[in-house]
Amino acid sequence: MNSEGSIEIYMFWTLQFKNEVFNNFWPSRAGKGTQSKLIARRYNFKHISTGQLLRQEIEKETETGKIIRSVIENGEFVEDNLVMNIVKNEVCMDNGNFEGFILD
Asked: pTM for this one?
């Protein structure tokens, strides 16, 4: 741990406890989800997988889920504002006693 209270973890992962900022820049299939779960468990953070949230929205067949399905089936990226709204809803509805959140 350095003087700013952050820990540098292999492959550009930074946890900054004072501001609860987490960066994860690993390539596909490098273990981001696995490491996110381990870190979340260790530090009492809620692990939020944006991919899982999008899949859940599609499975619920909501209007948002239908939009997401269409975008993905067309080989496009889901718009940032849509993803951010889904993440915001997940964070706001959280009932757990977590120290923070880690996004994957």
From this structure: 0.70
